[in-house]
């Protein structure tokens, strides 16, 4: 089956609604609904092309519902999965990019479970020895901790085993694969409901739900999860009916009953009782208790349950079993789409919807399972994991957060020690629970070394957004609340380090993450500066990942380097704006852009300064300077010249709260580093008073209408004279300027291929800018040290091994490098990870 048909078979919401409505559905109706779904996905194709594809793959007159569902699963397995010599199932290299797109909608466990069932059957769970061997031989190497298959490539295998990988950009929350999130939702429905309830009112969450299906609400989603849990139970009852006292066969009335019981009113009254054994799964699990716990993992069990269902499907003639199984798989696929970013959901705002819906919250209260998942195999892919977490702004909160992260890390290590047959005495001697003990016990047990990166959260300046003449008296400066919260969090971390002297053995560095359109590097500059004064040297910053205009993205990266005083060994996260092909960006963004006129002014000032130092046309500089003066007059009431505006722009690393005495205490109570900052500000004010006054106006200290004017939206047309001056060559000059700045400071960029393909303007891995950075495309002056990370691997359905696989395969198959040259480039990225990973107090 082609990919588009497979996707539609697993995602058609009209079919799902038909099931939910309790209506019987025949194969002709199913064919019609699938046609309509494919019609919407492929609106440029004439009907006959789509209809012929369906007729070829799906012939209702010759099929049964059982054969349709079975063929759908078999086609998934046949198209993508190949078996290796050791029995492990991997993805065909030629279809790896296509597979990566597919699993945003279809959980990869479907293909793996079907491959296991087709090749090895289901084992005999009534025979302890037989089922124990089945789990050890087939399930353990395949799905013990991860259901994500990789590619068959001995070059990559050798490279990983020889050097090990370093994941230098990964958020610990957002990393769990779908299966564990799914199990938390249907096995602990009340807890799951409680966790996601606070997100019900979030506008972005409502958009996410209705973006998948018009009218879908959180309450409706919870109902569907109740349906799925009961369908799962009914399916297992029929699968295991040979062992039951009396046989059970799913019928239409069973599905009607399940739908009725899922209604909240019926749930409260317990009106409908199931006519099957509702404890069947627990009874099955008891038969598996003799298998070691580290083999009988939740993921292995989830896979085995699907194997039982798929095996029974291939043998039964009960059409309603296939009907119920398809119903169950459709609900799970919809759940998958709500926790994994889809291929048509571009931009950070779309990504943020998955972080707001809280659907991962219950599953991600513990970390041990994720450490196993991220290390991928028994041999271990990772040597170094820089896990990012959001620190609390109070001491108690930070203690509890770190205890959970480190206690589960220790639990992960003990599991690995058990696998290596260490003695009980060794295990017991490291059974630590308080934070002091956890910090004292270093990374000494396993190959996976953990370091933690505290990332501050970028937040929107709501006061600036709501600023009017009425409330201007409450105005202090831009991002006043966030600046205060950042400093409070910094002080909490400092207090934590004073209490726990071994904290630096785990807390290695700092970052700022979340939507960069909400807060720029200038807001974080005082916090980073004070952390550096305290002895921390390892800093990175999310920049140039998402942007309204390409100029804005390039400028943000330059600001991060300068305002945060990033130095040798520091890094930039993403950096897409200084890598993306300007023509590709222009074609994908369209001819008009709406943006804040203050951002437009900053972009042009930044561009003018650095273009004036290059050999560019005087006409270009004239056009840019004219627009700068016009916007300056609109915002500040005076047409300032570009260079004085640049001087004022350069002062934004200063803390406005201190600079303008927004909240200054008595001099006698100020800490030494604050007094030092005040002294420096006074010197700057004397040396360049005009720039300082513009900086003051920028923050609206005496006139709060200026930030309001800055936030006014204006339209930028690609054909206007000023915008036309930003050609491919002009953008490349600015991109290379920032790249040279990074190279001079011996910094690296954290590249996240799948994350960028989802969030940025890319449609294929071959379009990704990493290949310019690697110097393999013929674009001179773009090379920069690159390290890889997986970002939010659960949300992007990836892992670090697969990120390397995508880069290796694209270098060879799309860029055209020889096998040896492609491997050499990938090996250099691996070695870059060793060089630029954060070390304890690097220097």
TrEMBL record:
Residues 738-808 form the Adenosine deaminase domain. Signal peptide: none annotated. InterPro entries: A_deaminase_dom (IPR001365), Ado/ade_deaminase (IPR006330), Metal_Hydrolase (IPR032466). Keywords: Coiled coil, Hydrolase, Metal-binding, Zinc. Its cofactor is Zn(2+). It comes from the Bacteria. Its EC number is 3.5.4.4. Residues 479-506 form a coiled coil. Belongs to the metallo-dependent hydrolases superfamily. Adenosine and AMP deaminases family. This is adenosine deaminase. It comes from Pseudoalteromonas spongiae. The lineage of its organism: Bacteria, Pseudomonadati, Pseudomonadota, Gammaproteobacteria, Alteromonadales.
């Amino acid at each position: 089956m082609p990919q588009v048909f497979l996707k539609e078979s697993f995602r058609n919401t009209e079919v799902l609604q038909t099931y939910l409505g309790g209506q019987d559905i025949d194969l002709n109706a199913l064919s019609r609904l699938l046609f309509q779904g494919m019609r919407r996905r492929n609106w440029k194709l004439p009907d006959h092309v789509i209809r012929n594809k369906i007729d070829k793959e799906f012939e209702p007159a010759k099929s049964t519902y059982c054969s349709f569902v079975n063929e759908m699963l078999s086609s998934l397995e046949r198209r993508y999965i190949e078996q290796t010599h050791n029995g492990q199932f991997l993805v065909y290299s030629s279809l790896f990019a296509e597979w990566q797109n597919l699993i945003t909608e279809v959980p990869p466990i479907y293909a793996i479970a079907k491959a296991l069932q087709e090749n090895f059957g289901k084992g005999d769970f009534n025979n302890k020895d037989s089922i124990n061997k089945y789990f050890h031989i087939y399930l353990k190497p395949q799905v013990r901790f991860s259901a994500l298959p990789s590619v068959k490539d001995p070059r990559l295998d050798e490279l990983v085993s020889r050097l090990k990988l370093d994941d230098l950009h990964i958020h610990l929350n957002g990393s769990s694969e779908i299966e564990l999130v799914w199990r938390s939702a249907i096995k602990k429905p009340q807890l799951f409901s409680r966790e996601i309830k606070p997100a019900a009112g979030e506008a972005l969450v409502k958009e996410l739900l209705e973006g998948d299906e018009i009218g879908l609400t959180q309450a409706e989603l919870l109902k569907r999860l109740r349906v799925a849990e009961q369908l799962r139970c009914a399916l297992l009852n029929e699968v295991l009916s040979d062992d039951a006292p009396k046989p059970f066969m799913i019928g239409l009335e069973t599905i009607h009953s399940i739908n009725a019981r899922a209604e909240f009113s019926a749930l409260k009254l317990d009106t409908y009782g199931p006519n099957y054994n509702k404890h069947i799964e627990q009874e099955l699990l008891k038969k598996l208790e003799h298998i070691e716990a580290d083999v009988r993992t939740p993921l292995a069990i989830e896979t085995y349950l699907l194997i039982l269902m798929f095996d029974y499907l291939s043998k039964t003639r009960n059409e309603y079993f296939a009907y119920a199984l398809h119903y169950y798989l459709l609900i799970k696929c919809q759940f998958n789409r709500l926790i994994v970013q889809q291929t048509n959901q571009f931009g950070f705002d779309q990504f943020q919807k998955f972080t707001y819906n809280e659907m991962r919250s219950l599953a991600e209260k513990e970390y041990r399972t994720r450490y196993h998942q991220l290390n991928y195999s028994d041999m271990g892919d990772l040597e170094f994991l820089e896990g990012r977490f959001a620190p609390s702004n109070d001491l108690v909160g930070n203690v509890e957060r770190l205890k959970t992260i480190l206690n589960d890390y220790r639990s992960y290590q003990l599991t690995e020690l058990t696998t290596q047959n260490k003695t009980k005495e060794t295990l017991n001697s490291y059974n630590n629970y308080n934070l002091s003990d956890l910090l004292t016990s270093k990374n000494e047990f396993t190959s996976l070394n953990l370091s933690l990166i505290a990332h501050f959260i970028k937040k929107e300046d709501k006061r600036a957004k709501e600023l009017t003449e009425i409330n201007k008296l409450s105005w202090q400066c831009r991002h006043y609340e966030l600046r205060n919260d950042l400093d409070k969090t910094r002080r909490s971390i400092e207090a934590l380090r004073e209490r726990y002297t071994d904290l630096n053995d785990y807390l290695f560095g700092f970052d700022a993450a979340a939507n960069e359109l909400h807060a720029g590097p200038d807001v974080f500059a005082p916090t980073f500066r004070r952390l550096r004064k305290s002895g921390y040297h390892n800093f990175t910053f999310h920049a140039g990942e998402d942007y309204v205009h390409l100029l804005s993205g390039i400028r943000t990266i330059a600001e991060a380097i300068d305002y945060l005083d990033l130095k040798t060994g520091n890094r930039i996260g993403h950096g897409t704006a200084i890598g993306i092909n300007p023509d590709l960006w222009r074609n994908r963004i369209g001819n008009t852009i709406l943006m804040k006129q203050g951002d437009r002014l900053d972009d042009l000032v930044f561009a003018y300064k650095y273009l004036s130092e290059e050999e560019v046309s005087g006409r270009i500089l004239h056009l840019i300077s004219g627009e700068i003066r016009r916007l300056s007059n609109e915002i500040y009431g005076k047409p300032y010249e570009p260079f004085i505006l640049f001087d004022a722009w350069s002062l934004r690393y200063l803390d406005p709260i201190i600079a303008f005495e927004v909240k200054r205490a008595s001099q006698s109570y100020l800490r030494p580093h604050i007094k030092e900052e005040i002294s420096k500000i006074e010197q700057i004010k004397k040396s360049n008073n005009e720039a300082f006054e513009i900086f003051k106006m920028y923050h609206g200290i005496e006139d709060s209408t200026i930030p309001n004017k800055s936030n006014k939206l204006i339209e930028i047309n690609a054909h206007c004279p000023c915008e036309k001056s930003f050609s491919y060559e002009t953008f490349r000059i600015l991109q290379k300027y920032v790249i040279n700045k990074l190279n001079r400071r011996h910094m690296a960029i954290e590249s996240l291929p799948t994350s960028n393909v989802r969030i940025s303007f890319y449609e294929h891995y071959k379009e990704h800018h990493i290949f310019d950075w690697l110097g393999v495309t013929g674009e001179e002056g773009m090379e920069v040290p690159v390290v890889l990370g997986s970002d939010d691997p659960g949300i992007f359905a990836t892992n670090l091994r697969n990120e390397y696989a995508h880069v290796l395969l694209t270098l060879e198959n799309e860029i055209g490098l020889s096998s040896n040259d492609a491997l050499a480039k990938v090996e250099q990225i691996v070695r870059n990870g060793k060089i630029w990973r954060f070390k304890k107090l690097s220097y």
